[in-house]
Backbone:
DNA sequence: TATGTTACTTACTAATAGGTAAGTCGTCAA
DNA sequence: TTGACGACTTACCTATTAGTAAGTAACATA
């Protein structure tokens, strides 16, 4: 019933290594051999767990999206005001950058033209899910007066996603987390009402 | 003294093709063979004009940066108000997207970890040049009252660069130029004072 | 104890990668 | 007209790519 070994299991350790490689080098910037070498298994062993690079890529996005969703759920459960939720959201990105990584799906957005169809759809689903969560937070914040903005909620949600992804993208060549933080803070500061005005 | 043929010349046609490939597929998503096939020359001919992929990449960034600089000079020569200049700046990005492309240096920012040193420096120079131009425009706009913003000019300039690059990045999976435009408009609308207030 | 099943390995393969050495062919200046 | 030069091509080469076929050792179940 349970796995023989409860050390993570090769399938998920393959995902761990591949995830890091995609987030730093892109989907066309790593090979099965890179993953195999780091795990000290053979190339063929990877093919046992994931039929091909396309399937590995799909599994990568699926797991990443589900973990991201869990992080968003955790933010929801904390039950803070909308501006605090948005700050927590941007902290997810900052943490990725602190590991010297790009957002997995941001990286794959750059590689989009070269991706197999199943991966393309999965990337879009990630951004859609992010957008839906942000829309809910923005609506909450506007309703309770903690957020203030012009234009549609969807447009604001999209500009947050693209603003944070862009800030990640540009911060990496400069190796400078504070560059990301400054951009993220500006982005979100433009939405929050001054604390005095709340309620 | 002048070229035998004034049809573009192979060296620059190589750059044209490679540029398109990098902007759509990334630096690790194309090969010398792809470029050679499209130009109907041999692989070895590319090596004659550019010693290796690293040198080709460098030439690509240098030309792109210089063309970008020319576009910025043209905006300056038009002598419009700062908000108009910023709109023209964002139009450069929109035009790239309309060709189904990512900004060359935005794409290379994603590939950054895999790039040779010379290419890395050149990418950073591109962003620095963009930032310097934006800083001048922002200072001009603040001085003449056409722009209004909190925080340092440099931070605003950086948030414009990363905001536009991110909007490009995310718009491509959706194949939707209007997604970019909406984000770009929001980004710049937050800086302009209402026309009535000018001077 | 036979029969699977899981998680691999060894030993390949064909295609593609970037790159090189040596030659060819037309043009041009002396 | 000769010889140098620019712009290539032919013919390689080696490493790496993703991927496969067949086997095996360890365990589990009946």
Residues:
């Amino acid at each position: 019933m349970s796995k023989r070994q409860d050390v993570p299991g090769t399938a998920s350790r393959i995902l761990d290594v591949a995830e890091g490689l995609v987030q730093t080098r892109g989907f066309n910037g790593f090979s099965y051999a890179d993953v195999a070498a780091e795990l000290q298994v053979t190339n063929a062993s990877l093919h046992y767990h994931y039929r091909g690079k396309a399937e590995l890529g799909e599994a990568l996005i699926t797991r990443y999206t589900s973990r991201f969703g869990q992080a968003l759920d955790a933010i929801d459960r904390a039950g803070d005001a909308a501006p605090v939720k948005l700050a927590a959201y941007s902290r997810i990105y900052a943490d990725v950058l602190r590991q010297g990584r790009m957002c997995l799906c941001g990286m794959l957005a750059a590689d989009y033209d070269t991706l197999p169809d199943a991966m393309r759809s999965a990337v879009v689903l990630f951004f859609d899910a992010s957008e839906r969560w942000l829309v809910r937070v923005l609506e909450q914040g506007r309703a309770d007066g903690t957020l203030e903005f012009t234009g549609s909620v969807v447009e604001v949600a999209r500009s947050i996603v693209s603003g944070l992804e862009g800030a990640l993208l540009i911060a990496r060549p400069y190796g400078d987390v504070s560059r990301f933080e400054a951009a993220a803070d500006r982005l979100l500061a433009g939405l929050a009402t001054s604390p005095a005005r709340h309620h």
